[in-house]
Amino acid sequence: MKYLEKIQSLLPLGYMYLIVLGLLKETIFFYPLGINILNYSSITDILISPISDMTSNPILILVVLSVVLLFFLFQILLVKYSHKNWIQKILKSYRMDTNLDKRELRKAMIPAFVMLAGFELLALFIGLGLGQGEKIKKRLDSQTLQHNYILTTGSGERVPVYLIDINSIYYFYVKKDEKQVRIAPVGGIGNIEVINNK
């Protein structure tokens, strides 16, 4: 029961870490496009950014879960075979006491497990931000963006656009045959339709 209470007390810290990672990813993503996303984000956007990043891409969820599962399985193997010489060398390299019983060893490995999972998430979010931002910037410079939406402005004009992102206040898009990223308030857009690119 104490273990469950400890996990519950750490959940807010974990969520704060995810929020920081979401902010970092968004900032890195929009930087090559010359946009300071914090100027265009509400507190709601900041709070839900890690959840929206995780749920918008099922592959991302699978990668995160599989890496965490691999760390967990590695920890189980280390504890199970802690009496083997090669495991003892690994434990000594992490400055862990090799004379602990299995239960104490499992508890001693939790901070290392949390650090590895945190580092994995940091690398994943930064990598996604860098990769996606640079990819859009290169396609924007070479005019190879596939326009994926038809945007109807408040005045009734229908324009094919590449939609970069949406938050609760703004649309970020590029019009066809332009290299400039446009930022429009949600209220200024009349309608948006998906272009079927099959």
From TrEMBL:
Keywords: Membrane, Transmembrane, Transmembrane helix
Origin superkingdom: Bacteria
Transmembrane annotation, as ranges: 15-38, 59-78, 108-130
Claim: Transmembrane is one of the keywords in the record: yes
Protein name: Uncharacterized protein
Organism whose genome encodes this protein: Chryseobacterium shigense
Top-level taxonomy: Bacteria, Pseudomonadati, Bacteroidota, Flavobacteriia, Flavobacteriales
